[in-house]
Design a protein that fits this description.
Elements (H helix, E strand, L loop, with lengths): L7 H9 L6 H16 L6 H20 L3 H4 L2
Helix pairs in contact: 1-2, 2-3
Length: 73
């Protein structure tokens, strides 16, 4: 993903978030930004592929984030 799409800054903020309490909202903001872009119907094939990869990465990040119980032990 070498292109610089406007929604990518939200994805990067989620990936770089170190506070487990803030991570879910960062992921949601990134997913919403991508969703807003997708509904414009002006997405070319390269951006579509980048969106699919990014949504997959966000799903993994969401699934693998530390649970609250682990962080507080």
């Amino acid at each position: 993903m070498s292109a610089n799409y406007a929604w990518m800054k939200f994805y990067e903020a989620a990936v770089l978030e170190t506070n487990p309490e803030s991570l879910p909202s960062r992921i949601e903001v990134a997913q919403n930004a991508i969703g807003q872009r997708v509904i414009t119907l002006a997405v070319d094939e390269a951006e579509r592929r980048a969106i699919v990869k990014t949504l997959d990465a966000l799903a993994i990040l969401k699934r693998e984030r530390p649970s609250r119980s682990i962080c507080h032990q």
